[in-house]
From TrEMBL:
Substrate binds at S13, K45, L77, R91. SUPFAM superfamilies: Nucleotidylyl transferase. Its EC number is 2.7.7.3. ATP binds at S13, F14, H21, G92, V93, R94, E102, Y127, S128, F129, I130, S131, S132, S133. Pathway: Cofactor biosynthesis; coenzyme A biosynthesis; CoA from (R)-pantothenate: step 4/5. Keywords: ATP-binding, Coenzyme A biosynthesis, Cytoplasm, Magnesium, Nucleotide-binding, Nucleotidyltransferase, Transferase. This is Phosphopantetheine adenylyltransferase.
Amino acid sequence: MKQKIHRAMFAGSFDPVTNGHLDIICRASNIFDELQIGVLDNPNKKGLFTFDERVELIKQCTGHLDNVKVVSFEGLLVNYCEKHEINTLVRGVRSGADVEYELQMAHMNRELNPNIETVILPTTTKYSFISSSLIKEVLTFDADIKNLVPKEVLEALKRKTNRGK
């Protein structure tokens, strides 16, 4: 009997990738045979980092994880997953508000493709307040964020903004 390979996708804009994201990535990589990190390129959204910079930063931060692959895609996530035989979406949640939003997304994705399941992982408590938006906001005030982002991201933020401790 052929063993099924369990591929999962953790998608987001990751602008920038945070320790909270990495917590979910590391934990999901222990659950699935293959974890793809899908970097979304939304041309309508102006980010701090370019699309290529975000992809490269995630590659640097996850290089130690053998079963993690960083990819990019356009269009519907469920279409990409179907094409690449990915049967699970991984989502991280920090709060009740996140749960409500992720449930809506999970139901929509299931409606679009009933063969794809969503697994929701609660973030580790020490990262429960971190978001990419909040990182960018406090960075404008020259806040110390070294415990909130990977060292590769901190260095990139310093270069990008001439800030960040």
